[in-house]
Structure formats: structure tokens, C-alpha cells
Amino acid sequence: MQVKCPYCHRDAELVTGQVIYPTRPSFHNSYFWSCAPCAAYVGTHKGKKHKPLGTLANKFLRMLRCKAHEAFDRYWQAQRMRRSEAYNELGEALGLPEGKCHIAMFDVETCHKVVDLYHWKGKR
């Protein structure tokens, strides 16, 4: 499998968590796709070390994805929904095809939309 960096378009490298999180031993046996020059990376599925969880993200996009996840998680947990139901609802709100909605695949603009959407829903 070949994974490209969305920033510089180079091939990403498959590395262990020891490279990404050297001070966090709990991640040392995990795998990540990494583009060192761009400081971009993404984790991989457990048991499928080569399959990325989403797209590579630089520090700024990782921060936005965290904010989007915080807003999204607060919403579906407060609504006592299943996470999969909430992702289906979010996908519909964003106009994404079923099964193609996951925060690890979102770009900067989509992360902002998620935060705005759940900020608004929280005010109801």
C-alpha cells in the first residue's frame, strides 16, 4: 500500500509509534503513516497495520480534528445515540455519502463546519 502526503505529495513512510510518540511507550507497538518533512501523520487500524485511519494531518489539522471530535462526541453522548448513528446524521448534514463520514478524513474546512454545527446544536 502506498500513502501520499496531501501537503508535499511525497510517499508517506510506515513507522511505529516510537517514531511519532517516543515518550509514550503505550504507542510504541502501534503503526502510523508519516511524512517527516511535513510533520504530518495518521494512525492505522488495529490489526491492519497498513490501513490508514484517515488522511495524514499536520499539527494544525490534528488540532482541528480534536476540536471536531470533542464537539461531536459531546453531542452524541448527550443524545444517548450510538456513535454510528451520530456519524450517519453528521454525514447527512455535511452531504457526504453513507459510510464516508469520519473525522479522520476531514480537511480544515470540514472540521470547522463540524465544530460550528455542534456548537449550534448545543444551544437548542
Strand content: 15-25%
Spatial ordering of strands, largest sheet = 1-2-3-4
Class per helix and strand makeup: alpha+beta
**Proportion of residues in helical segments:** 40-55%
How many distinct domains?
Answer: 2
Count, helices: 4
Main sheet properties: 4 strands, antiparallel
H and E string:
EHEEEHHH
Give the N-terminus to C-terminus distance in angstroms.
45 Å
Number of strands: 4
Which value, in Å, is the CA radius of gyration?
A: 16 Å
Mean pLDDT: 93
Spans where pLDDT lies below 50 across 5 or more residues:
none
Tell me, briefly, the overall form: globular
Quick recap of the structure?
This protein has 124 residues and is of the alpha+beta class. It has helices at residues 17-20, 59-78, 83-94, 108-122, and strands spanning 13-16, 31-35, 40-45, 48-52.
Keywords:
alpha+beta, 124 residues
Topology, pairings included?
Elements: E1 13-16, H1 17-20, E2 31-35, E3 40-45, E4 48-52, H2 59-78, H3 83-94, H4 108-122
Antiparallel strand pairs: 1-2, 2-3, 3-4
Helix pairs in contact: 2-4
